[in-house]
Every structure is written in C-alpha cells, then in structure tokens.
Description:
It is a single chain. Helix 3 runs antiparallel to helix 4. This protein is an all-alpha fold and 181 residues long. 38% of the residues are buried. One fe (ii) ion binds next to helix 2 and helix 5.
Amino acid sequence: MTKKKTYKSKTDNNILNEIIRVDHAGEYGATKIYDGQIAVFGKNSKIGKIIKHMADQEQEHIDTFEKLIIKNRVRPTALMPLWNVAGFCLGATTALMGKKAAMACTVAVEKVIGDHYGEQLSLLKQDQKKLKSIIKKFQKDELEHHNIGIAHDAKKTPAYGLLSSVISFGCKTAIALSKKI
Length: 181
Ligand SMILES: [Fe+2]
Ligand SMILES: [Fe+2]
C-alpha cells in the first residue's frame, strides 16, 4: 500500500493552475523578446553574446514549464500565438532603438517577472515545495538579467521612464490575461 502524503497546507488547485499557465506564457514571451533582439544585433556581436546568455537561461525556464504544463495537465494560455508575435516585436523594436533601449526592455520585463515570482512564492503552500524551489531559482536568474540590463546603461536610454512604464504596463496586462485566458 502506498502512503499518501498529507500536508498541513495545500495550494488551491485553481491558483496552482494559473501559476503554471502564466509562468509558461511569461517564459515563452521572454524567449521571444530575446529572439527579437538577437535577430537585430546578431548573436556574434558583443551585445548579442550578452543577450544570448540570458536567452539560454530563458530556454531552460520555458523547458521546465513545458514539462510542468504536461505533468499537471494544465491548459496553456490560448494567447501563445499573440505572445510569440508581441514578444518578438518588443525585442526587435527595442533593439532597433539601440543597445540601451534593448537593455531598458530587459530591466522592465525582468523586474515585473521577478516581482511576480515573488508574489507566487507566497501563494504556494507546503505541498508545492518543488515548484517553489524552481521559482526561487528562476527569480534569481531574472534578477541577474535585470542587473545585466542596469550594468549596460539601460537607464541612460532617452525617455527611459516612459519606455519602462509602457513595457511594464504591457507585461502586467499580459500576465493578467494569461492567468485566465
Ligand atoms: Fe525566465
Ligand atoms: Fe529573464
């Protein structure tokens, strides 16, 4: 007979599904943003190599959530095709604006994702220890990306404040939509 584990606190199933769905969507979007930037800069340029390092970590993140979507039988967001195009366009557009704008995009996006991971950590209970440790690790990677952006003069982008607010708002909207749709 297999013993069933009992937990003092259990994560609400709807919340768990939303977390997996939105993180899967977000990590997918992140890979597309960096794809868009690399398409403009080229992967062998100096900045391209820096972005490639972050893109490789995003690939690891999306691969993990791809597995979790299947394992937990969570429906992925219906908006994946939209995030594909929107992510790529955001990456390509900011890259066309220049290196600093591309880094400002990273700073804005990674800040929203990092904060969002932080909120999720408080929603996940004892029964989701493994997912919590995955999210903690990814949150650390996103913070690293954020700091890479800062270190590469993101804040020196012309109209940094405006660009950053527009991107943050877009990301927050994408998060709200991907949880439900
Ligand atoms: Fe990520
Ligand atoms: Fe990231």
